[in-house]
Amino acid sequence: MSETKPKKVDILTVAKAARVSASTVSRYFNHPDLLKPATRKRIDSAVRRTGYIRNRAAQTIHGIRSGTIGVLIPTLDHAIFAEVVQAFSDTVAEKGFTILLASHGYDLQREYAILRKFLEHRVDGVVLTGLDHDDAVFQLLDQQEIPCVLMWNHAAGSRFPCIGADNEQAGRMIAEHVLSLGHRKIACMFPPTDGNDRALARRDIVLQTLKNAGVSVPDAWSLTTVYSISESKTDARKLFSGLNRPTALICGNDILATGALYGAKAAGLSVPDDISIVGIGDFKGSSDIEPALTTVRLPAKRIGHEAGKALVAAIIDQETWDQRSLHCEPTLMLRHSARAVSVG
Amino acid sequence: MSETKPKKVDILTVAKAARVSASTVSRYFNHPDLLKPATRKRIDSAVRRTGYIRNRAAQTIHGIRSGTIGVLIPTLDHAIFAEVVQAFSDTVAEKGFTILLASHGYDLQREYAILRKFLEHRVDGVVLTGLDHDDAVFQLLDQQEIPCVLMWNHAAGSRFPCIGADNEQAGRMIAEHVLSLGHRKIACMFPPTDGNDRALARRDIVLQTLKNAGVSVPDAWSLTTVYSISESKTDARKLFSGLNRPTALICGNDILATGALYGAKAAGLSVPDDISIVGIGDFKGSSDIEPALTTVRLPAKRIGHEAGKALVAAIIDQETWDQRSLHCEPTLMLRHSARAVSVG
DNA sequence: AATAGTTTTGCAAATGTTTTCATAACTCTC
DNA sequence: GAGAGTTATGAAAACATTTGCAAAACTATT
Predict the structure, then answer these.
(1) Which residue from A95, A305, A323, B208 has the fewest beta carbons nearer than 10 Å?
(2) Per residue of chain A (344 residues), what is the pLDDT tens digit?
(3) Distance, angstroms, CA B22 to C1' D26?
(4) What is the largest CA-CA distance in chain B?
(5) How far apart are CA A286 and CA A278, in angstroms?
(6) Does A143 touch chain B (CB under 8 A)?
(7) Cβ B102 to strand C below 7 Å
(8) What's the CATH superfamily of A68-165+300-328?
(9) SS3 label, residue A147
């Protein structure tokens, strides 16, 4: 690659064109206030003429920041992660950072390997998703002393600052709401929980809240369904076609709830007249679907934005940053997919 | 940052621990076949003991590949782009590449600035979205002689290899299908086309195909609607509540079509009995919504995968790569949201 | 043991930039 | 004009790795 370059434009090329030294050109970019205006003008012109493009790698070697941030998520294929990454990316891009993005597909071993690769690239900081990580990941972060923020969850006393919502609170809110509508024949639909502490926390607290209210969910009504409209439609349709039908279904996220709404329609049920369906997340479209979905909002955009701000602060204000976690409150969104249990 | 590092582990540290030179350690990583097995073993042990993490920046300075690929998309917030980026990322990650991801929000000037930043990072290759780019972008790519692939569209004779679907073909297919069902009172809903050549191509060919069949779309039935379920639901509901109602609605993508389905429900219409609704894209959920959406499938996963393969080939096999574009065929998906125009 | 051929390894220079320190250039005051 | 103080700039060393070439080490043959 380098031997086929017709002309090599480096800082020396610019320096020659401007009749200054390379160190002056470097100052032009990094400490322009140290230069005379006339010198600045000459260099500016030389940079344009030569088409020089700075080499971030050479800066990085000096321990200068690479200007990159490693973003590690389970998958981009779930809209909610795409949304939070977009907000995060917008926030850090505003401060001149570029993100390195990788996904581990809920495989925490893979997460460790990706983190090492990020460290090879000397990222200035890292954002991980959720609280649950291989201990080797935490060790590596400590060892390398790299700024890190955990995104999406909130939990007091976590090892690194976390920016997100309290999944237990969200789960409790939706379960309590369904109970407050009088439902006692309640089914649950949650995604697999391996490598997914968000889903696990929600499921456990939902079941606990129901149990504390004297409601036990039969095994046949406790579904594990992959994150897919198609799968949840199929599972919901099967559930609603049984002889013994619940009056309410709590879904672990709004994609599952969307599929369940479609499944109810396909089973010939009217929502919420025949079956109440609720979700968690308040994803795009949740308020527009017919009927509008009752759910708990997890503010993805805000989470991404705050995580971006926190990590930039950690990188830039290393000495003064106070490592504070931030809890983004979940909000109960009462809409039209759930109603009080019927007395008939 | 560097002055607070408690211990600096570089290649010299490893060399000392293994009692070899730094160049031998370098060979261990890059040309292990040149080393005696015993030497390899010693170095391997020293790498583990010291916790050394290679510095990609130092490699990059040598004109060695940075191991990064720049990915430039309009936004991650549209599920279809998230899907294609995930497939692309998986494909290149398999070959050891990490993606730098940035979004330009349909602002082609911003795209140029982002591309420059990618070049500062000395990415090994770049993937852009669509065919339409500021000419400065093309000039910069030519000048820097960096491998580039255009993703999402297919057009013969494009300046760089493109991997995607023919948007004109997709638009023609869906328009012809609606015509073949006998519809002549047809409305259209497309997103804004600034900086979005995909949407423009689809809209133009849809209108052209209708026109060739003697169907003219009244201005009041030619909607421009932002990419949002909420907006399209509102616009569709308004359209369907008018005194003069179309028998069919062609939407420029499946998100708009999804919102239109919700809008029809909200307007008290039955789909497809009262109004046929079709889309383009076959997004997630399009086959599961009730009624299942008739649309043209653009194979996002395949596009992302093939684009990743093509770019990796361009980077690795620079001399032999033949720069071929690839057309991923759109597929007409006949489902339940459209039917023949009623004779009553 | 001597010689020829092959393999392995180290030295030194290179890559592109940044920064420290010394010196040159400039400005102001007497 | 001379001297003191301030500003601007260049030379050289540094950062972490890679690689070409020479020399050391090893192996095989006579």
Answers:
(1) A323
(2) 333 344 689 999 999 999 999 999 999 999 999 999 999 999 999 999 999 999 999 999 998 889 999 999 999 988 889 999 999 999 999 999 999 999 999 998 999 999 999 999 999 999 999 988 999 999 999 989 899 999 998 877 788 999 999 899 999 999 999 999 999 999 999 999 988 888 999 999 999 999 999 999 999 999 999 999 999 999 999 999 988 899 999 999 999 999 999 999 999 999 999 999 999 999 988 999 999 999 999 999 999 999 999 999 999 887 777 778 899 999 999 999 999 987 65
(3) 22
(4) 91
(5) 10
(6) yes
(7) no
(8) Response regulator (3.40.50.2300)
(9) coil
Q: What are the domain boundaries of chain A?
A: 2-54, 68-165+300-328, 167-298
Cα–Cα distance, B206 to B170 (Å, whole number): 9
Give me the residues paired with residue B162 across strands: B150
Q: Rounded to whole angstroms, how far apart are CA atoms A171 and A140?
A: 32
Cβ neighbours around A128 below 10 Å, total: 25
Does the B2-54 domain belong in CATH 1.10.260.40?
Answer: yes
A302, A151 in Cβ contact below 8 A? no
CATH ID of B68-166+300-329, from 3.40.50.2300, 3.40.50.620, 3.30.1490.20, 3.20.20.10: 3.40.50.2300
Superfamily of domain A167-298: Response regulator (3.40.50.2300)
- Token pair for residue B85? 């980026």
| Packing angle, helices A108-120 and A135-144, rounded to 10 | 20
Helix (H) or strand (E) run with residue B262 in it: helix B254-266
Q: Residue B277 is encoded by which pair of tokens?
A: 């609704």
State the ipTM, two decimals.
0.91
C16 C1' to B130 CA distance, Å:
34
For residues A251 and A232, the answer to whether their CB atoms sit within 8 Å is yes
Separation of alpha carbons A208 and A240, rounded Å = 24
Rounded Cα distance, A128 and B49, in Å: 26
User: Per DSSP, what are the bridge partners of residue B276?
Assistant: B248
Query: Rounded distance, CA A136 to CA B163, Å?
Result: 39
Residue located via tokens 């960096």: B146
Q: How far is A215 from chain B (nearest CA, A)?
A: 32
Give the whole-angstrom CA distance, residue A148 versus residue A128: 8
The residue of chain B with its CA nearest to that of A114 is B98
Q: What's the fold here for domain B167-297?
A: Rossmann fold (3.40.50)
Find which of A59, A98, A319 to mutate to test the B interface (most B CBs within 10 Å of its CB): A98
Q: Are A72 and A102 in contact (CB under 8 A)?
A: yes
